[in-house]
Design goal:
Blueprint: H1 5-22, H2 26-32, H3 37-61, H4 67-87, H5 95-120, H6 126-140, H7 144-155, H8 157-170, H9 191-198, H10 200-228, H11 231-256, H12 261-281, H13 285-316, H14 319-343, H15 350-359
Helix pairs in contact: 1-6, 1-7, 1-8, 3-5, 3-14, 4-5, 4-8, 5-13, 5-14, 6-11, 6-13, 7-8, 7-11, 10-11, 10-13, 10-14, 10-15, 11-13, 12-13, 12-15, 13-14
């Protein structure tokens, strides 16, 4: 494996630690400040739009700045976003400002990370490398959501957010060990139409994968909070999900280099279909926690091989063109998830059926 990936793993792991400490609680924080559930979903809907537009901007900025400098710029948006989160308790300003800052941060960060990783990974070990990219942050953040819930309960959400800010700042350190990226290849928006024709199944499966992950990472913790009205319950869900993914991701990554990736994804899809249906039908707290652990476990069967496919496709094409193209199904999926969530606001569990339906799409993928 190319040793130039080590600083990327370290930076992303520390990012994962900070994000797991704070990120899962942001929608809960917004709800506890008096925002309605519809307001929270509109926040994520707005964020989805800003993130896509910011991805295009990040690509444009990459003509003049290296990817390492773009990541540094993403941290500027991140710390301003954190400052506004802290001020939100005292000042009444529109959530769309937060959505804009969060969209700028995530787009600039992920645009650079995707490109850095795709350029430096190797085809023969892509599954193992993707496994490490995803499992190291999970291992680093295993207890972070539970600890974050404890901080929020004992000291308040502002203390939690400030703790996350410190960890985010520390996560900058490995970035300075990342080697500068070569000058970008020529970028053509006209390639997007060619990609859709060339990879129609990828486009649809990417859409389905984001529906699954957004429902799991955002709507499921919100549902847990609304059911139990307990911040620590949300933290437990985050830690159990991380534990499930961490236990299995490395093995999946290694096997996906040797076994048909589409087959592994279909096995995971069967399990996730069952999990979402049971979640819809049950009201048992112990079962909710058990299903969260299993969801982290079986979701690894989907996201490790599928992200390996994404980076392989990017390497087979102009990396930056493909990474930006990927944001089209990603954004369409997010808009669909949160638009339907607003529609289902009186019965949020209906979103689980949407996630269950999305798992069926994996069966149509062949590589």
């Amino acid at each position: 494996m190319d040793r130039t990936l080590y600083p990327i793993y370290a930076m992303h792991s520390l990012q994962g630690l900070a994000g797991s400490l704070v990120g899962v609680f942001v929608p809960i924080y917004l709800l506890k400040l008096g925002n309605s559930l519809t307001d929270v979903f509109i926040f994520y809907l707005s964020y989805s739009v800003f993130s896509f537009l910011s991805f295009l901007l990040a690509n444009h900025v990459s003509k003049w700045l290296s990817l390492r400098k773009i990541i540094l710029l993403s941290y500027v948006f991140l710390f301003v976003y954190i400052m506004f989160l802290i001020l939100l308790e005292r000042a009444n300003f529109p959530l769309i400002i937060l959505a804009f800052l969060y969209g700028m941060y995530t787009a600039f960060y992920w645009f650079s990370l995707h490109n850095l990783f795709a350029e430096r990974s190797e085809d023969e070990t892509i599954g193992r490398s993707v496994g490490k990219l995803f499992v190291f942050p999970k291992l680093a953040a295993l207890l972070a959501p539970l600890i974050g819930g404890g901080i929020a309960v004992l000291f308040g959400f502002n203390s939690l957010i400030a703790s996350g800010a410190v960890l985010y700042f520390i996560s900058l350190t490995p970035l300075f060990l990342v080697k500068e990226f070569p000058r970008p290849q020529a970028f053509r928006f006209s390639k997007f139409k060619e990609f859709i024709k060339k990879y129609p199944r990828y486009f649809v499966v990417e859409f389905a994968d984001i529906v699954r992950s957004e429902t799991e990472n955002i709507i499921w913790p919100i549902f847990i909070f609304l059911i139990f009205r307990n911040v620590l319950s949300v933290g437990s869900v985050g830690s159990l999900s991380a534990a499930g993914a961490a236990l299995f991701a490395m093995a999946v990554g290694s096997y996906s280099d040797r076994i048909n990736k589409a087959f592994i994804m279909k096995v995971g899809a069967v399990a996730m279909l069952a999990i979402w249906i049971i979640r819809f039908l049950t009201e048992s707290e112990p079962l909710f926690y058990a299903l969260t652990l299993l969801a982290g476990f079986f979701a690894a069967l989907i996201f490790i091989p599928f992200n390996s496919i994404i980076y392989t496709l990017a390497r087979e094409n102009n990396i930056r063109e493909f990474i930006v193209f990927r944001e089209i199904p990603v954004t369409l999926a997010r808009l669909s998830v949160y638009s339907l969530a607003i529609l289902f606001v009186l019965n949020i569990k209906l979103s689980f059926l949407v996630a269950a339906t999305s798992t069926l799409i994996y069966f149509f993928y062949r590589k």
